[in-house]
Design brief:
This protein is α/β, with parallel strands linked by helices and 209 residues long. The protein has six helices and eleven strands. The strands form two sheets. Strands 3-2-1-4-5-6-10-8-11 form a nine-stranded mixed sheet, with helices on both faces. It has a two-stranded parallel sheet with strand order 7-9. This is SDR family oxidoreductase.
């Protein structure tokens, strides 16, 4: 069993990630929690938890960690502090700890934020974090979904390095894609976009070139 540190574990996608990891035969979730009440929530749910804030020194959270999923977000209020610098802090700590893989939840549009009609500042922060990860020397997968919904997941997606279309995808399917990207046979050192689609998530990932 590999220990997976999840940043943003108390968020909408993060909670789904934790549940998937809890039920996995390969992974043990370690929730990274910023607030005391979040720590207590995870303990009540019998999830291992470490208290830490990604906007400050986070090295202590990486004890015995094998891989990382970064699903944290500021909700648009502290973009540079959380979405950019928080991610960079996690990447630096992951590099020091020599984790095997870093899976990043990004966003469609982060490749060229200057072209976006809206959310430019958010996409700029995500772009800088993604580029920092690419240059870190860590093995990585960067997942860029379209608009997130709370619809029930289908286990099927549309995936390509660049989809050249807009659309939506359920948080369930995003979480499943991020967890599936942890597998040793999943693509590494690659960035791709995902939307709701008709291809099983495992098959879509296996076809990434």
């Amino acid at each position: 069993m590999e220990n997976i540190l999840v940043a943003g574990a108390h968020g909408n996608v993060g909670k789904r990630i934790i549940n998937l990891l809890k039920n996995s035969q390969y992974f043990t979730p370690i929730a990274l929690a910023r607030k005391d009440e979040y720590v207590e929530d995870f303990k009540k749910d019998h999830v291992k938890v470490v208290k830490g804030d990604i906007t400050s020194d986070i090295d202590h959270a990486f004890h015995a960690i094998d891989k990382v999923i970064f699903a944290a977000g500021s909700g648009g209020e502290r973009l540079t502090e959380v979405d950019e610098n928080g991610a960079k802090n996690m990447i630096k700590a992951a590099s020091k700890a020599q984790v095997k893989k870093f899976v990043m939840l990004s966003s469609m549009g982060a490749e060229h934020p200057e072209k976006a009609d809206q959310l430019q500042d958010y996409l700029k922060a995500k772009h800088k974090a993604d580029e920092f990860l690419k240059e870190s020397g860590l093995k990585y997968t960067i997942v860029r979904p379209g608009h997130l919904t709370n619809e029930k997941g289908t286990g099927k997606i549309k995936l390509d390095l660049k989809l050249n279309e807009h659309g939506h995808i359920s948080r369930d399917d995003v979480a499943q894609t991020l967890v599936r990207a942890l597998q040793d046979d999943a693509p590494k050192n690659v960035t791709f976009e995902i939307l709701q689609g008709e291809t099983l998530i495992g098959k879509a990932l296996s076809e990434v070139q």
